[in-house]
Amino acid sequence: MTSKLLLLCFLFFLSCSHLLLSSSFSFSNSTKICPHGQALALLQFKQSFSIDNSSSRYCNVLGGTPSYPKTEYWKEGSDCCSWDGVSCDLVTGHVIELDLSCSWLSGTIHSNSTLFRFPHLQRLNLAFNNFNGSFVSAGFGRFSSLTHLNLSASLFLGLISPKISYLSNLVSLDLSLNWDVEFRPHGFDSLVQKLTKLQKLHLLGIYISSVFPNSLLNGSSLISLDLSHSGLYGRFPDNDIHLPKLQLLHLWGNYNLDGNFPRFSENNSLIDLDLSSTNFSRELPASIGNLKSLQILGLSNCQVLGSIPASLENLTQITFLSLYGNHFSGKIPNVFNNLRNLISLDLSKNNFSGQIPPSIGNLTNLRMLDFSDNHLEGAIPSSIYGLSSLSYVSLQYNLFNGTIPSWLYTLPSLLELDLSHNKFTGHIGEFQFNSLENIDLSINELHGSIPTSIFELVNLSSLRLFSNNLSGVLETSKFEKLINLNDLDLSNNMLSLTMSSNSNSMLPNIESIDLSNNNISGILSWNMGKDTLSYLNLSYNFISGFEMLPWSSMRFLDLHFNLLQGQLPTPKNSTYFFSVSHNKLSGEISPLICKASSMGVLELSHNNFGGMLPHCLGNFSKDLFVLNLRRNQFHGIIPQTFLKGNSIRTLDFNGNQLEGLVSLIMCRELEVLDLGNNKINDMFPHWLGALPKLQVLVLCSNHFHGHIGVSKIKSPFMSLRIIDLAHNDFEGNLPEMYLRSLKATMNIDEGNMTGRYMGGAYYQGSMVVTIKGLEMEFVKILNTFTIVDLSSNKFQGDIPECIGNLNSLRGLNLSRNYLTGHIPLSFKILKMLESLDLSSNKLSGRIPQELTSLTFLEVLNLSQNHLTGFIPQGSQFQTFENDSYYGNPGLCGFPLSKRCTTDEVLDPSQEIVAEFESGFDWKITLIGYGCGLVSGFSLGCLIFLSGNLNGLCGLLIRTFTR
């Protein structure tokens, strides 16, 4: 019986095998090869493109697949169904799928392309090629059977044909990353309404310019929706979202799309939600806890406020949580106990306060932790020690204090540690692992020496410990193992430095070193990074010299405020910024400096250089925008070799012995010209009025003379806001034409200018104000600061009423001249005025009561005139003392001891309206760079100079640039 059963089974197997083989043979015989016409169309399509591997260069990064030239293997005479990227119907042989993504194709798909001769095509993927100049044309609408269309990242452009909406069988449409493609008006709405079978719709970067269509929220078939960076605007629908199959929703980068955070029902499958860089506001709703499948939540750079809801703890599958750049406040809730899958947590740039919640310690899979830019305080909990997977820790810009917890030194995978801008104290501990690549502990209160373990971190790329209280001797030999170090900043500490004899080969990849403001002294022979170093700042030390400047790639070299002696070291030809100001260097400037043809800033001020200036200084670098030689002993004339098209913005020759002034009319970018405190004997240089960007002009303390008169230039000095002509021999009337042209001192919009300083990233000005021998330094020059100083000349006649038009003026000094007449009533318009000095003239009449409306006025000197009558009372005038008025025997009233008689009491109805003559004469003791005041400083700091304010007439505002 058993043998019979086995025999029957064997016969059944043979029968089944025969049927299978017969069926296979029959099917094979019925398979069709690719139709000749379609093979020919594919070959013609291939021939319309060139092969360029750069056309698919982003394929690996963004597409996640390798790229190669698929069409290279298409050969005539072979079955096209066997070609790479081509799939055919097994029965008819028609091409039904064409996948040429990442195929290095470069060229244009024209409207008559043979691509559109495949009516049976079901899937078409042309992603990650270069079809620059191609349109999403009507031809794509011919594929009536198409279910999948992917044209992403292929440089299409122009308007999308409305016939795309005819593809009614489309399940997946991806046009992403074609940044120059857009829908016609209402084209997107039409597409959404007609393509009802869509499961995937990705339009990242396609310009839609539409409100978010409500109909999309009713598409129950949607699985993946990406409309990021597509110009959506208006309000996102407030109704609940019922898309049970939706797994991905990306709307990031739609900056004008606002509304509340979407409300999702409990019946959802959402895995990836990114609403970053939109205008979603209000608080996060408790319904966010319904997203129990969510793995990725991006909500950065929105307007969300309030606190994090406790229901966040329900997101047990979350791996990526980014809430940075919002307005969250309050304490970070203790909701992380169940979020054990979290890999990345970013709560930076919010307003969180309080301490780090202890449940953070349960995030054992966490790799990235960023709480930076908040108001968190207290010590970092030492109990958080289970975060052994951390590779990135960023807690900068908070109020943390105490010592750095020991567990941070024991993280085996840590790559980056940033605790800067806090209040940490104590010593820096020893790191136990050498995985670290970036360390930033700057701007804290750490002290002690740099731990030896830091010099064992062979992977270290950036070390920033600046602005602490670190001390000790830094031996260059310790850097031997830091072969990957690129950036070193130990500035603003108390470190000293010793050199080793074998430093040549150390730090082979270093590009930037900042050791400024330390205790480094002596002659340096350090040449680490001689082939790579481009930035070196050793300023504010006690260095007396260098054996050499060996760095062949140097761009930025700052040695100012040291004890350098001897000749000027010659910078390398590649140098862009070179500062040796405030040293003890001497001798003449060698013409070799003119080989530095890339120089942008040459700062040699405050030394003992002498001799004539090299003729090449004016034209050795087309990039030169700052030339500062102030307070040296140069003589002769200023070089006249400035060429047309130069970039000069600042010329500062103050405090030398220069005698000749040449035309600088070629310096069309000039903003600051300081020639103060020299020996220039000349008439007023009217041609300066033609420089369109000149803001600061300082000619004080020279031998300029004669009448200023009028200019032949129609609108001179349109940008000028600081002018100092003090201590010269100008005469005649004040030149009214120039005063009327000072548009930059009128109607300044301080709201838009606040915080803006003259200069750039490499160079900003500072000023020294000198009053009665007392110097006060103000760092930086605000663009809102305006001052006119024409003191200590021989001007005469009345003060022009038009000065009142300079309503943004901060300082006015006309002292020590021969001015007559009355104080103009128009001065009441100078609402921003902080300092007014009219002393030592021949002014007469009353002090206008209207001046009490100048509520910013903090320094007033009217002494040594012929003023009479009652001193105005009220406002700032209550703060001025006798010295503001002495030498005017006709004045009476507070603060003078002389009481007023009945006839002397001020009667506004009898005020004499001051007449004025046309004319304007400049006399400044400021330089805004030279002898002048700088923007934004309050003269209130000068009020303490009680006593004889007679010296105020000699107000010198000297500026030096750094």
Structure description:
With 962 residues, the chain is mainly beta. 7% of the residues lie in helices and 25% in strands. The chain has a 32-stranded mixed sheet, with no helix packed on it. The protein has a 12-stranded parallel sheet with strand order 12-14-16-18-20-22-24-26-28-30-32-34, with no helix packed on it.
Q: Number of helix segments?
A: 6
Distance between the termini: 110 Å
Percent helix among the residues?
under 10%
Largest sheet data: 32 strands, mixed
Specify Rg, calculated over alpha carbons.
Answer: 39 Å
Number of strands: 65
Residue-averaged pLDDT: 86
**Overall form:** globular
Give a quick set of tags describing it.
6 helices, 32-stranded mixed sheet, 962 residues, mainly beta, 25% strand
Summarize, please.
With 962 residues, this protein is mainly beta.
Topology of helices and strands:
Blueprint: H1 2-30, H2 36-47, E1 50-51, H3 59-63, E2 86-88, E3 95-99, E4 105-106, E5 123-125, E6 148-150, E7 157-159, E8 172-174, E9 180-182, H4 187-194, E10 200-202, E11 224-226, E12 233-235, E13 248-250, E14 256-260, E15 272-274, E16 279-282, E17 296-298, E18 303-306, E19 320-322, E20 327-331, E21 344-346, E22 351-354, E23 368-370, E24 375-378, E25 392-394, E26 399-402, E27 416-418, E28 423-426, E29 438-440, E30 445-448, E31 462-464, E32 469-475, E33 487-489, E34 494-498, E35 512-514, E36 521-524, E37 535-537, E38 542-546, E39 556-558, E40 565-566, E41 577-579, E42 584-587, E43 601-603, E44 608-612, E45 626-628, E46 633-637, E47 650-652, E48 657-660, E49 672-674, E50 696-698, E51 705-707, E52 722-724, E53 729-733, H5 736-741, H6 750-753, E54 765-771, E55 774-779, E56 787-789, E57 794-798, E58 811-813, E59 818-821, E60 835-837, E61 842-845, E62 859-861, E63 866-870, E64 890-892, E65 956-961
Parallel strand pairs: 3-5, 5-6, 6-8, 7-9, 8-10, 10-11, 11-13, 12-14, 13-15, 14-16, 15-17, 16-18, 17-19, 18-20, 19-21, 20-22, 21-23, 22-24, 23-25, 24-26, 25-27, 26-28, 27-29, 28-30, 29-31, 30-32, 31-33, 32-34, 33-35, 35-37, 36-38, 37-39, 39-41, 40-42, 41-43, 42-44, 43-45, 44-46, 45-47, 46-48, ...
Antiparallel strand pairs: 1-4, 2-3, 54-55, 54-65
